[in-house]
Design brief:
The complex is a heterotrimer of chains A (339), B (413) and C (387). With 339 residues, chain A is α/β, with parallel strands linked by helices. In chain A, 41% of the residues lie in helices and 18% in strands. Chain A folds into 2 domains: 23-111 and 269-338, D-Maltodextrin-Binding Protein, domain 2; 112-268, 3-Layer(aba) Sandwich (D-Maltodextrin-Binding Protein, domain 2). Chain A contains 16 helices and 13 strands. In chain A, the strands form 3 sheets. In chain A, strands 1, 2, 3, 4, 8, 9, 10, 11 and 13 form a 9-stranded mixed beta sheet that branches. A two-stranded parallel ribbon of chain A has the order 5-12. In chain A, strands 6-7 form a two-stranded antiparallel sheet. In chain A, helix 2 packs across helix 12 (286-294) and helix 5 packs across helix 7 (175-191). Chain A is globular, with a radius of gyration of 23 Å. Chain B is mainly α. Chain B has 2 domains: 2-120, no CATH class; 178-412, Orthogonal Bundle (MetI-like fold). Chain B is built from 15 helices and 2 strands. The two termini of chain B are 51 Å apart. Chain C has helices at residues 2-47, 64-68, 84-87, 90-96, 113-119, 128-140, 150-153, 166-197, 202-216, 219-233, 241-265, 269-277, 282-310, 314-318, 339-347, 353-383, and strands spanning 52-61, 104-110, 143-147. Chain C has a 3-stranded antiparallel beta sheet with strand order 2-1-3. The chains are: A alpha/beta (339), B mainly alpha (413), C mainly alpha (387). At the B-C interface, helix 4, helix 7, helix 8, helix 9 and helix 12 of B face helix 1, helix 8, helix 9, helix 10 and helix 11 of C.
Chain lengths: 339, 413, 387
């Protein structure tokens, strides 16, 4: 018994002892759940084709990713953070303060947000204003904000069908919801006098907007069955389930890659990741991983990531990103304030 | 892992053996030279030396590692190793010096072991303290922003602004977040209630069947079946609820002319009910068997049928035990996570209709902690607030249940 | 007479009630068992198709052009029907066997998930042109379904056709090893202390109440504990086997303590008294007599605890095991995933090709758990002594 006890104790001690920082072989990536499928696809490809360890990718959300990224410079912090938005100047300052002086910003493409519905339905053309009025918690009626009374689409806009409004959308913990609020609701409410030309992004809670996990099988089943329901999803979801659902036109533009890439489709955003230049020397394979991500085979116009729903950047932008990467051109505050 | 084992086999083990050998040898030669019998057997002196050499250094090493990994104070590697060696050498020297005819090595070993055992049993206390502290600490952060009373009684859960900040977006234009947990607890309550509706009758009747009607052979068959139900992982139940039961419920509801959501509260409730049948049945079975046989025989002798005996004699007598079984099943259902994560919805919904989508406490905890939020956003912290209430509820249920069952046992012991 | 008929009718009624009651008790058991049958049948029905995997016979050309664009290695019409999991490996294959260069080899290659779904007559996204090609292949006998061995020796993948459970299985072994390493010694020691040494005072009672409470705490709360204490304070890497193992160890601890105590208390006191009578010290009584006698019980309890920990998912989600981890861990601080977490990850994807794999993964998990439980029962029946 004693022998056994000492054994257990010693192993416990030494096990924890080996935890202290050591050189690591795997690339560690955190960040946005929107970029996650693309990053993990590239990671798998990287692991399979080079024989190096497959990077470990955790989906922590953009905000959480930036926080972990800026937590320090040592190898216990991630090498890359994925982000579905640009780094904030505040986050940038934090990185500078902690010693992450050199960060390369990489744009990988666009993500469109699709308004999906049953394939059997006729095409639907919605404006952002329609969408705003359908899901907002309060809408302007006679110049005052009142609790959203709309139950049917034609009450919002007589041109729309007289079907009940039922929207399955991302829950508050999701990055897609963030994008939807910013790109649809805030953009549309800023133009409406009823909202005092201010940003408005509160979503109704009376059961017409139903929060639902993005990759939920149950929601696809629901859409495949219920012809009245709409779903708000990332474009890749539409792509994966194209045999059952299709996307609505927003402001008259169809959610197809060409339109999203050219910026015609209004509900889309750029996807980023950020690399610590200092880690390039310490973590084997990190540079190759980024190289592979930026290759034409991945993010090109006919790249593999397009098949799983990434919208490629225009040619000129891709070249620009690649030169920035090959030069290891660090991100500056001016860059972030510029746009 | 390999490194650790190597470390252990070429480092610690030979050293321990060496100490053991030295101690035993000293005791043996001492006995021979002085001609008197030592208090303990030579091997026990060997163990005495091992303890003096290994235990202090291992304890210090453990403390150093904890200090280092929790970033309080990183002990340099050289200092770590040298401290260990000095301690081990010191312990060895001290213990060898002490070995003599009147040293009570056996008592020393016994006491060391006792200390080890007490230390081990402290782990469970430390775990509880850890749970309470970790949850209390984070939920304090949450409750410093959200009034506890509002949290408990509010009927609206809309963490909008918290979400904006968590996502790193400017939240000045949005309204204040509201964290009223009533709709979320309503979801948990609804799912649990449905589960109990399934589990209590089936579980109780199964227990009655097994204790009163079944032949030993049937009992031998029925018991494992129920035990298998308890052994199925919850993630598997969740998959089953989402893939099979939920569409089934929707179809059935449609046939009956109702409208059901795919993320309705009914399907996870039904499946969870099946899951907790064994909790009800096995405890009730024990309790029914614990009722003295003479109560049963007395009733039968008066001409009562078996069912009447059951209804009028056994069940009333066993009631406290059955209640405690149900309470245990209830606390299990309230804390169940995977089934609801996979099959229930994300919509905070205050309704009596089980066909609508509802969300539960555990779903919100998982959603908040695995979602796109930053770690210190209010929504993430709300998970700890919910966990705090969940913890309190299950603890209260457990305490009530154990008090009830203790009373019951006393009655028939 | 009237009284007599009334009495008879009452008796009749009472017997009817008796039968009703008996019937409903039997009915309850039938419901429970038929649920189990339905459940197992349903999972098997969903999962059995994943045992097979579609393969296509094709020519693979190895030359400079195919190294640049591996899609060119196979006939053009097949390039979008074959799994990228094979095609992308061509450059490495050539590197390993340089003599392949410039040759053309005819071989069976894994088809992609859509083709696989079509061959299994499940919904798919193939275009009618592609279906025509497959039908042609079928007529020529160039497409077949074979045993899906890849499921057992591949790790997780974003390509359903080559996704497997290896990394999850290895991760499970690591996590379970750590769980047992921490929980069994501590659990048994606690039980020995409480059962054999502890005086009856407030301290002992506190520990006892405490263990009971720990057993009732929802597993997800142990996940929060792991996150707050092990990961945030002690700096254990997120999603590592160590983080998962420690968390599950604390969760399993009460089970092991409680079963060990039962096993210890079933050893009759005259054994202890006998040992004491010949001069054994308290610890020698335990070590030489009580523990060996209660070993089967302790073993059974540990196996049951192990089986419980093996099926647990919720706390592991909280300590970060939901990540995409395609490679088997090689150390306890490496990122690892476990079988239930893998099942959860797959079930959450909307690609339908994963559904059958999820179900097959469940079948594997269930069979392991059933075997563990059967082993526990066997040990109990074989070695348990009745006093």
């Amino acid at each position: 018994m004693k022998k056994f006890l000492t054994l257990a104790l010693a192993i416990a001690v030494m096990a924890i002892g080996t935890l202290t920082a050591q050189a690591r072989e795997q690339i560690r990536i955190v960040g946005s759940s929107t970029v996650y499928p693309f990053a993990s696809y590239v990671a798998e490809e990287f692991g399979a084709t080079t024989g190096k360890p497959t990077p470990v990718i955790e989906s922590t959300g953009s905000g959480g990713g930036h926080k972990l990224f800026a937590a320090g410079t040592d190898l216990n912090t991630p090498d890359i953070t994925n982000s579905s938005r640009r780094m904030k100047t505040k986050e940038f300052d934090k990185n500078m303060a902690i010693g992450n002086k050199k960060i390369v910003e990489i744009v990988i493409g666009y993500d469109g947000i699709a308004i999906a519905f049953n394939k059997a339905n006729p095409d639907l053309n919605l404006t952002r204003k329609d969408l705003l009025l359908a899901v907002a918690a309060e809408v302007p009626v006679n110049g005052k904000l009142v609790a959203n009374p709309y139950k049917r689409w034609n009450e919002i806009n007589p041109a729309l069908p007289a079907k009940p409004i039922l929207v399955y959308g991302p829950p508050t913990s999701s990055g897609t919801r963030d994008a939807f609020e910013e790109l649809v609701m805030e953009k549309a409410s800023k133009k409406l006098a009823g909202y005092g030309k201010k940003k408005y992004s509160k979503i109704r809670q009376d059961g017409i907007y139903v929060p639902a996990g993005e990759n939920d099988n149950l929601i696809v089943q629901k859409l495949a069955k219920d012809k009245n329901a709409l779903g708000i999803f990332g474009y890749s979801f539409l792509e994966e389930n194209s045999d059952r659902i299709k996307g609505a036109m927003v402001d008259g533009v169809k959610p197809i890659p060409a339109n999203i890439s050219s910026g015609k489709y209004p509900v889309s955003r750029s996807l980023f990741f950020y690399v610590k230049v200092d880690h390039l020397k310490k973590v084997p394979g990190l540079a190759e991983y980024v190289d592979m991500f930026l290759s034409e085979q991945m993010i090109g116009t006919n790249g593999l990531l397009k098949d799983i729903g990434l919208i490629p950047l225009p040619d000129a932008d891709r070249t620009a990103v690649r030169t920035r990467w090959t030069k290891r051109q660090p991100l500056t505050k001016a860059d972030l304030e510029h746009k | 892992m390999l490194k650790v084992l190597l470390y252990f086999f070429i480092g610690v083990l030979p050293l321990c053996y060496m100490a053991f050998y030295l101690g035993r040898k000293k005791a043996r030669t001492g006995e021979l030279e002085s001609g008197e019998r030592f208090h303990s057997r030579p091997a026990q002196y060997g163990w005495y030396t091992v303890i003096w050499m290994a235990v202090p250094s291992l304890v210090i090493s453990f403390i150093f590692t904890i200090l280092g990994s929790s970033k309080i104070f990183a002990v340099p590697y050289s200092m770590h190793i040298s401290t260990l060696l000095v301690l081990a050498a010191g312990g060895l020297w001290f213990s060898l010096k002490n070995i003599g005819s009147d040293l009570k090595a056996r008592n020393f070993i016994e006491n060391t072991i006792k200390v080890m055992l007490v230390t081990a049993s402290l782990v469970s206390i430390i775990t509880t303290i850890g749970i309470v502290i970790s949850i209390l600490f984070e939920s304090m952060k949450f409750f410093s922003h959200v009034n506890f009373f509002d949290f408990i009684t509010g009927t609206k859960w809309s963490p909008d602004t918290a979400f904006l900040e968590g996502a790193g977006r400017d939240g000045s234009s949005a309204s204040k977040p509201e964290f009223g947990s009533v709709p979320i607890f309503a979801g948990t309550f609804m799912v649990t209630l449905i589960a109990l509706f399934v589990a209590v009758p089936i579980g109780l009747l199964s227990a009655i069947f097994m204790s009163e009607y079944a032949t030993p052979k049937m009992r031998g068959l029925a018991k494992p079946i129920l035990e298998i139900l308890a052994g199925i992982p919850t993630v598997v139940y969740g998959f089953f609820a989402a893939i099979t039961v939920s569409p089934l419920v929707v179809q059935t509801a449609e046939m009956l002319g109702f409208e059901a959501d795919y993320t309705n509260a009914l399907s996870p409730g039904l499946v969870m009910g099946i899951m907790i049948i064994p909790f009800v049945s096995s405890l009730s079975d024990d309790v029914i068997n614990a009722i003295p046989q003479n109560l049963r025989e007395g009733s039968l002798a008066l001409g009562m049928t078996r069912s009447e005996t059951m209804k009028h004699v056994i069940i009333p007598a066993a009631l406290p035990g059955i209640i405690s079984a149900v309470l245990l099943a209830l606390s299990r259902a309230i804390g169940e996570t995977m089934i609801v994560v996979m099959a229930a919805g994300l919509r905070p919904n205050l309704t009596w209709n089980p066909l609508e989508g509802m969300t539960t406490v555990t779903v919100r905890i998982v959603d908040a902690l695995t979602g796109d939020q930053s770690f210190d956003s209010l929504e993430t912290l709300s998970a700890f607030g919910l966990a705090f209430v969940l913890l309190m509820v299950t603890l209260i249920l457990n305490i009530v249940s154990s008090v009830v069952i203790r009373k019951f046992r006393k009655q028939y012991d | 007479m009237n009284k007599e008929t009334r009495r008879l009718s009452i008796i009749k009624k009472r017997y009817r009630q008796e039968n009703m009651f008996k019937f409903s008790a039997i009915f309850a058991i039938i419901i429970a068992s038929s649920f189990l049958v339905f459940f197992l049948a349903n999972i098997s029905k969903t999962g059995y198709t994943a045992i097979q995997q579609t393969e296509i016979l094709t020519e693979v050309t190895y030359n400079d052009a195919t190294l640049k664009n591996t899609y060119r290695a196979v006939p053009r019409e097949l390039s979008r029907l074959l799994s990228r999991g094979f095609l992308r490996l061509i450059p490495r294959e050539v590197k390993a066997n340089p003599e392949l260069m410039g040759t053309t080899v005819t071989r069976w290659i894994v088809a992609n998930a859509e083709v696989d779904q079509y061959m299994k007559e499940k919904p798919n996204r193939l275009k009618s042109k592609q279906i025509a090609i497959i039908e042609k292949l079928r007529a020529e006998g160039k497409i077949k379904k074979t045993l899906n061995t890849g499921f057992f020796y591949n790790g997780d993948s974003k390509l359903p056709e080559i996704a497997g459970i290896l990394s999850a299985v290895v991760g499970t072994i690591y996590v379970m090893f750590l769980t047992m390493l921490f929980s069994v010694p501590i659990g048994v020691m606690t039980a020995v202390y409480l059962e054999e040494f502890a005086p009856d005072n407030w301290f002992t009672r506190t520990i006892e109440v405490n263990i009971n409470n720990l057993a009732a705490i929802p597993s997800i709360i142990f996940g929060l504990l792991g996150l707050a204490i092990f990961i945030n304070i002690f700096g254990v890497p997120r999603s590592s086997a160590l983080a998962g193992g420690l968390t599950l160890a604390l969760m399993t601890l009460p089970v092991i303590i409680i079963t060990t105590r039962t096993a210890l208390s079933s050893v009759p006191d005259n054994i202890r008294q006998g040992a004491q009578g010949v001069g054994a010290s308290p610890w020698q009584v335990v070590w030489h007599h009580v523990l060996p006698l209660s070993l089967p019980g302790i073993l059974t309890g540990s196996i049951i605890g192990l089986a419980q920990a093996m099926g647990e998912t919720a706390p592991l989600l909280i300590v970060g095991m939901l990540a995409y981890i395609p490679e088997a861990p090689t150390g306890i601080t490496d990122a690892a995933t476990v079988l239930p977490a893998q099942i959860y990850t797959w079930s959450a994807t909307s690609l339908r090709a994963y559904t059958e794999r999820t179900a097959l993964g469940i079948m594997v998990l269930l069979s392991v758990l059933l075997m563990l439980n059967a082993a526990a029962v066997m040990i109990r029946n074989k070695f348990e002594r009745k006093w």
